[in-house]
Amino acid sequence: MARFQAVEAFHRLADETVLLPMSFERIEGGRAVISNFVGDFLTVTDEELRRIVELDVAPGDGLYERAYEKLLISGRSQISRLQLIAARYRTRMAFANAGTGLHLFVVTLRCEHSCPYCQVSRRSADKNLFDMDEVTAQKALDMAFSSPSPQIKIEFQGGEPLLNFELIKKIVFWGEERSAELGKPVTFVITTNLALLNDEVLQFSKEHQILISTSLDGPKDLHNKNRPRPGGNSYELAVAGIDRIREFLGPDKVGALMTTTQSSLDRAKDIIDEYVDRDLGGIFLRPLSPYGFAIKTKQFARYKTDEWFEFYKTGLNYIFEINKAGKHFPEFYATNILRRMFSDRPTGYVDLRSPAGIGLGALVYNYDGRVFASDEGRMLAEMGDRTFDLGDVFTSSYEDIILSDKLVDLVANSLTQCAPQCRTCAFEPHCGADPVYHHATQGDEVGIKPLSEFCRRQKNMMALLLDILDNSPDEAAILRSWI
Amino acid sequence: MKPLVLSGRAANTSPGLEQLGRRLIRVREFSYDGLGELSPFDAPLVAQQDQIDWGSNFGSDLIVLRAAVDQTEEIRKPFVRLNRDFDYLANGDLISVDGRTGRLRTIYRRASRYNFFLITERCNHLCLMCSQPPKDVNDDWILEEVCEALPLIDPSTPTLGFTGGEPLTNRDRFIEMLRIAKDALPSTGLHVLTNGRAFADPQVAKAWADVAHPNLTAGIPVYSAVDYLHDHVVQSKGAFDETLLGILRLKNLGQRIEIRVVLHALTAPRLVETCEWIARNLPFVDHVALMGLENTGYAIANDSQLWIDPMDYQASLTAGVLALRAARVRTSIYNLPLCLIDESVRSHAVQSISDWKNAYVEECGSCDERPRCAGFFSSGRPKFSRGIRPIVGEPQIAV
Description:
The complex is a heterodimer.
Chain A: E1 17-19, E2 22-27, E3 31-36, E4 41-45, H1 46-53, H2 63-69, E5 73-75, H3 80-92, E6 102-106, E7 110-111, E8 122-123, H4 127-130, H5 134-146, E9 152-157, H6 165-182, E10 186-191, H7 199-207, E11 211-215, H8 220-226, H9 234-249, E12 254-257, H10 268-277, H11 293-297, H12 302-324, H13 332-342, E13 362-365, E14 370-372, H14 375-382, E15 389-392, H15 398-402, H16 405-413, H17 435-442, H18 453-471, H19 473-482
Parallel strand pairs in A: 6-9, 6-13, 7-8, 9-10, 10-11, 11-12
Antiparallel strand pairs in A: 1-5, 2-3, 3-4, 13-14, 14-15
Chain B: E1 7-9, E2 12-13, E3 22-28, E4 42-46, H1 52-56, E5 63-65, E6 79-81, E7 94-98, E8 103-108, E9 116-118, H2 140-149, E10 159-163, H3 171-184, E11 189-193, H4 202-210, E12 216-221, H5 227-234, H6 239-252, E13 256-263, H7 271-281, E14 287-292, H8 298-301, H9 303-306, H10 314-326, E15 331-334, E16 358-359, E17 376-377
Parallel strand pairs in B: 3-4, 4-5, 5-6, 9-10, 10-11, 11-12, 12-13, 13-14, 14-15
Antiparallel strand pairs in B: 1-8, 2-6, 3-7, 7-8, 16-17
Helix pairs in contact in B: 7-10
């Protein structure tokens, strides 16, 4: 059996080992996280980081093996390593091949709520001035169905879209007709505060498999404070509506989103309890919206991000307790990032991707026919900033909008793959470009990332998740169960 | 524990049989049906004395006698008489008889779930635990015999395996054989154990894909996510890179791939990392098999390097399976008895050991799980874990 060779015979000479593309971020405790080109992480000590960067590693030393498994190093002549990275990168970026999938129809700006965090709705104003008309809706459908996306989702927005339910019904009928003609599946979502939910809406939604998305900011006092309406009963109506939909359409037909405000920050547990009690299947602990204070003043306050992060951590720990007690109850912000950390399935999430989802992932058709790159872009326009106003449904085609210099520049300039500070960031593979946010807060779609609350929040989030995954096995198992 | 005998010598043969040379024979029992038309390869399997007339008039140029038929004076035709080891042969089974030497081999058993064809003994690897040590001889005749045998196989056979050696040693002819199998057995799944290196050549990958078989799987071993560890196990420098490239090329053409990881002392220390790496980098594979070691062939010679009590990698195996499961990769554990597998992943265990070399030990007598358990290899020189115990009164695994 002398034919067999010892393991040393299969080692590579030191000068045949090369580095693969990688980024690193120093974290507390004299350690660093290294990420490869497709977002796999390796946590190392500073000394180990130095050794990898200087290729001071050799088979058998343990670090070589860890670095090799994480695609950080390669043999100079090995072909499969780069092929593997390329295949994975291609998979991760496959969303960039698809046309616009999400189409938001602002069927009216009118709303009977007067939420202070909303920049766009008009209270009890003239119906004719702020409702979308049929001609505009038809033109918007033309544009939506011109998208090369293999299927499209139409989401009715407002204002309160149920104030123009007659138009919603028509758009659904027309949309289904076109879907049948073109063989392109379409789904519908109504985003509503549920105050105007009635049997007709329920029946129609059942017949057309329409999903309902609503707002639930937390327990009664918080919700009603955040979302004032005549009668002060927004919470009661929302909760009753959720129950009715669950009963009539099914539990998977309604989803709720919360908006986090200053008043939410010390109420994490109460808010989560509300979502547990309503059996909503999880919660998205959303960041503070910057589109009030920050936009008006063109300022940004870092302490808010840190305050929010404390809120988030409190909430996440509480959610871990709920899960440990046996209830599967994911937090969706973490889930979204974890899915990207643990798989290469292309993300469909339009708010966190690069190339940015503006226009390419979602288009907003305003009541008056203007076309916006995002809902926040529409809010900016209401405040006089037309940066994300891409044209209108009457004079532009889908191609005009998508290939417009304006949109192409906004997307191309904000690519995290090459933006300063993002390009070298260890968390870049799981992050996204947010040109609207950075334009709103810094007057520039790229933004200076060390001054960006968005960047700080994203780094905080990913460092937190990595820390849990590395150091807290019980919680890590819960995180994995959400993927 | 004694494995089923698949090759051996005839008890006796008639004079003149040597003129027939090497012959492929499909045996037919006295009452046979369900196999369609007779072919020139069919021969009667005479089970008892009073079937000799039937056998003699069967129309074939040779007859096969079971061991029990011991009065052969009256027989006027060339015959081969089996010894008792081959009593299991039944209607529709295929054997190969060498008339000059009296040697015979069973090449297909209709009743078995485990029909594997050895394609060649040549291989470009020399795996430390190889159960079928390679020989560098021209044995192209084996592949030709398989091509001849495929049309004689019962088309309702669910799956056939192909092994070696490296089946793709003679790439063109092997891929041609896949085509023959597809034509003769359109609904039979084909499973090929290959080291995958041939697919690094895009033309080979394309030729494979062009067979367009609806249920063809390449079972490819990947022993580590670290280059030199894999290369050491297979004793070939550069193997890891080429195998990986082959996997990527084959999957790029939409072909079915199974990854096989054999568990022993050289692969177990980084088993969790290997599984996590597969989950992260190759989640597109159709199946991952984590396989206990069969202590036979080279594994015996390299025992000191390879042996590890499965109890000593049990926790890693559990973590590895969970990582694969989380990535939704279909994962099975092969060749390990259930008592050595943590309860949380027992549902992944498969009764994987071929029937002809499968056995159980004394402890199994009182075990509740025995009907679902892979048991042990009876081949080679079996080694037993300290963890073997009857499972009694525990919740049964969900299947």
